[in-house]
Amino acid sequence: MKRYTKDRLRRSMMFVPGNNPGMIRDVHIYAADSIMFDLEDSVAYTEKDTARFLVYNALKTLDFGKKEIVVRINDLSSGLGIKDLEAIVPAGVHVVRLPKTDSAQDVIDCEKEIEHIEREHGMEVGSTGMMAAIESANGVLNAREIAHASDRLIGIALGAEDYVTDLKTTRADGIELLFARSMILNAARSAGIAALDTVFSDVNNEEGFIAEATLVKKLGFDGKSVINPRQIEPLHRVFMPSEKDLNKAYAIMEAIEDAKKRGSGVASLKGKMIDKPVVLRAQRLIALYEAGTRVDDQED
Amino acid sequence: MKLKVPSTAGTAESNDIMVALKPAEAGGIQISLQSNVMQQYGRQIRAVITETLQSLGVENAEVDAVDKGALDCTIRARTAAAAYRAAESDDYKWEAKK
User: A21, A241, B54, B64: most buried by Cβ count inside 10 Å?
Assistant: First the structure.
């Protein structure tokens, strides 16, 4: 059985340093849709082994409920990434997050390693999901090929800190990320997978965080990475449909039902014809609302 | 697994446990433990450390552990990491989740 679902709510993916037992213990109490245990940048080089043991044992022992469990491994070229996979794939991770993905080949290489490990442990081949973080100009330009590189991919994500360094700029008001975000979003949609935005590092700047979250929601992203539990609630609020939009969506769906009952192929609302994209948007909005209230109820 | 050198794993942060291992030739697994939850969990912590070492084939060792309220899975992780470090081995035996 696959341990991942392609189509699920991913408004928030919370980073948890892989060598921090306290945070690993507490993470289930937060309302993040996905939890991402990090073996990469938040773990000192000399502690890669201990973090791997900690995440392995946590995955095998703790119950994280319905949350999606992601582990960010080190990149394969470092030699550490394969060791990470050897531990976390048998431990039952739902999704492996590959950092620094520059090309489709990076995804293919990682998938080969995962497949080998699944076979070795008698696990179903294909049961482990993957996501790719794009963090360079090359990665952005190859976003489409990356997004289509494996059936295991649930999404692609922007890693902005390395990316802006590669571009010879710094994080500012978001204009510096517009091209990368647009590329990643279009690549993800072309492959039918999720598009996930980067972290907002200044946890004390809630206003800036909400502005960025609002922008990426407008662009079409599914969600965003968070580095502090304080960012989860404002992020979910941004992604929650407004009452007005929700009422309109329900009215559209009612009009469609009425038209069906009448045997008419054409539905209209307040004199305007409802065409297919409008119905799709209404369905998506209702699904997002219902999924959002369901998950939030569970966490209360 | 044969322990060759002294090692440590873990930190002094709350919810963690610092496990220090020394190779020994005989005497079984000797544990010296400090814990802020000694009264309630001392016996359990010792049992988890012993089981973890035995499952790795370590028969003799001196263990010095300082616990700050670690979960069993953290105790297992720190003990196993310290053992591999002491054995100077990275031939990890990961097992699939049942």
Answer: A21
